[in-house]
Amino acid sequence: MNILLLGYGKMGQLIGEIAESRGHQIAGKITIDNRDELDLLSSDQVDVAIEFSQPEAAVENFEWCLEKGIPVVSGTTGWLSEKPRIEQLTREKNGSFFYASNFSIGVNVFFKVNQFLAKLMNETSGYQATIEEIHHTAKKDAPSGTAITLAEGIIQNHQAYEKWHLTEESSENEQSLAITSKRIDPAPGTHIIRYHSEIDDIEITHTAHSRQGFALGAVLVAEWLKDRKGVYSMDDFLSF
Ligand SMILES: NC(=O)C1=CN([C@@H]2O[C@H](COP(=O)(O)OP(=O)(O)OC[C@H]3O[C@@H](n4cnc5c(N)ncnc54)[C@H](O)[C@@H]3O)[C@@H](O)[C@H]2O)C=CC1
Ligand SMILES: O=C(O)C1=N[C@H](C(=O)O)C[C@H](O)C1
Q1: What role is this protein assigned (predicted)?
Q2: What residues does each domain of the chain span?
């Protein structure tokens, strides 16, 4: 399959390597410096686009793909206020759009464990939940997209929490779930859910050792999305 890489930084380069090792061809490698190359590409040269750019570039990239009828897989975080509009545009154009805050299979297992733990803790008093995420210093958005998905998983399954907020310190007895973001090199991505009480703490942690899991997941999803129409997420792709 011919894959267009929209964004060719840390993620785009690794995705390109994995895609080629799986027998795919790279139709283009688009960065902030060569966007004009998109004008030369026609839709029959691209089977699917994999979009890992930056928050300010993502929406324009999606619109370009949807106009051209090219299925798009995106992992870019920090643009979610526009998500309802992009999903609507996908339906209007009869296109294909797949977004995940995290393409790693391990993190998606962690999302399910987080939801199950929140259900258990909903039946238990005296604990305050907080989320901590740690990433490399080049990361532009905070909190991470993954931390937002984790917060949504707790809010949907624990009556004490109605919303989340980004803060420098964890705070007690709030209906708003506190998320703290730390930027420490070279962390590819660590997420900690902590339930604190006076008696004890319960913690679950996912630590990415590299970007390999994110990149492989994005290529597997692109293979899956190629011949599908509609708006999809990891819940559609995974069997658990
Ligand atoms: N969903 C997931 O599993 C994961 C998501 N991410 C997200 O993916 C995104 C990219 O991450 P990295 O590759 O580490 O970033 P990076 O900074 O290494 O690369 C970004 C790429 O986007 C390009 N770019 C930036 N502004 C642009 C513009 N205006 N037009 C076109 N291209 C533009 C840059 O030239 C570069 O090629 C981030 O939003 C990050 O949070 C990262 C890892 C996993
Ligand atoms: O910017 C990153 O690097 C990552 N971003 C994603 C996020 O915001 O959750 C996924 C992963 O944690 C790495």
Answers
A1: Catalyzes the conversion of 4-hydroxy-tetrahydrodipicolinate (HTPA) to tetrahydrodipicolinate.
A2: 2-103+212-237, 105-207
CA 15/CA 55 separation, integer angstroms: 19
Chain-centroid distance of CA 104 in Å reads 9
CA-based diameter of the chain, in Å? 63
User: Is 77 flagged in the annotation as binding?
Assistant: yes
Instruction: Note the pLDDT tens digit of each residue in 108-118.
Output: 999 999 999 99
Contact call for residues 173 and 136 (beta carbons, < 8 A): no
**Residue 130 labeled ligand binder:** no
Q: Does the predicted interface ipTM exceed a cut of 0.95?
A: yes
Q: Which atom of ligand 1 is nearest to the CA of 107?
A: 3
User: Residue 71, preceding bond cis, omega within 30 degrees?
Assistant: no
Which CATH architecture fits 105-207?
A: 2-Layer Sandwich (3.30)
Q: Is the CB of 32 under 6 A from ligand 1?
A: yes
CATH code: domain 2-103+212-237 is: 3.40.50.720
pTM above 0.90, yes or no: yes
- Residue 130 Cβ contacting ligand 2 at under 6 Å: no
